[in-house]
Amino acid sequence: MATKRHTSPSAAPVAATPEAAWNAASDLPRQQLSLATESACAMFRGFEAMRKIQEKAAHQALQHYSRAAEKLKEASEPAQLMQIQADLMRFDLESATQYWQQLGAVAADMQREWMACYTHLADNGALARVGSAVDGFSGLANGFNPFFPVSSRTEAS
User: Fold this and answer.
1) Per the domain annotation, does 155 fall within a domain?
2) pLDDT in tens, 27-81
3) What is the pTM assigned to this prediction?
4) Structural domains counted in the chain
5) Is residue 117 within 8 Å of residue 41, measured between CB atoms?
6) Within-domain flag for 6
7) I need a surface site. Which of 3, 41, 102, 113 has the fewest CB within 10 A?
């Protein structure tokens, strides 16, 4: 018994013929490849954005620490040394917080893009067409038994 599947209004009904079921099912590998490729693109965009954040953070740290190194060469009193050290600690805490917030935002964007890929697959009716194809194949398969043809089963009943 085939279960009723919910289809989107844009999904064209698939006739329960072997050809229509086969056409819908044979489109599945193309859809899977397209989904995998779009997901990979989203991942690579995210990795690229993360790399840019890392590069920017390293550049800012280099500049800040270089200035601190110059100040340390010129410092002569313990209070100056403590001030430079406190400034470095403040910079480290603030920049680390900003760094992780930015990485988290990029990771969330990457996740959103991945979900959009899967949502697009559902919204364009592809899942409904595959479901109809499965229903079509199961409907065809219900009457097929190579060991006991339909005519001999109905006669024996």
Assistant:
1) no
2) 778 888 888 899 999 999 999 999 999 999 999 999 999 999 999 999 999 999 9
3) 0.62
4) 1
5) no
6) no
7) 3
